[in-house]
Amino acid sequence: MAEERDQEFLEFVVKNIVDKPDAVEVKRSVDEMGVLLELTVDQEDMGKIIGKDGQTAKAIRILLRILGAKNDARLNMKIIEPEGSTKGFNRPEAKKEEAPKKDEEEKEDIDLDVKL
User: Fold this and answer.
1) Which one of 14, 16, 56, 107 has the lowest number of neighbouring Cβ atoms within 10 Å?
2) pLDDT tens, residue by residue, 5-21
3) Which residues, including other chains, have CB under 8 Å from residue 49's CB and lie 6 or more apart?
4) Among residues 96, 84, 89, which one has the least CA distance to residue 49?
5) Does 116 map to a domain?
């Protein structure tokens, strides 16, 4: 019974945050690293679970660490991305500019020296 309290705790906390508590699923597995709780929520609730800059997820993980310390266990939470969701939650991906290659930098320096 004590083993499943962490799973019940996570379900309780998450179900009280999300709009669709029926879609909340927590799978528990134990390995050499400790206890892993895999959290799955509805796609529309992902933002609520992660929070602004990941603050909500961070707070939940802190609570799980406290619960784990109380029970002499290492608890980790992994948020599973729902099927059909897009990376970045429909935010446009930032375009990355490639840094000029070292050879091109040297050529630019040489061209500048010649022009001066």
Assistant:
1) 16
2) 889 999 999 999 999 99
3) 14, 17, 18, 39, 41, 56, 57, 60, 79
4) 89
5) no
Task: Specify the number of domains making up the chain.
Answer: 1
The whole model's pTM is what? 0.68
DSSP letter for each residue of 20-54:
-GGG-EEEEEEETTEEEEEEE--GGGHHHHH-GGG
Angle (deg, nearest 10), helices 55-70 and 5-15: 150
CA–CA separation, 99 and 107 (whole Å): 14
- Kindly give the parts of the chain with pLDDT less than 50: 1, 89-96, 115-116
CATH of residue 5's domain is: 3.30.300.20
Residues linked to residue 40 through DSSP beta bridges, in sequence order: 25, 80
Report yes or no on 66 lying in a domain: yes
**Structure tokens, 30:** 């134990």
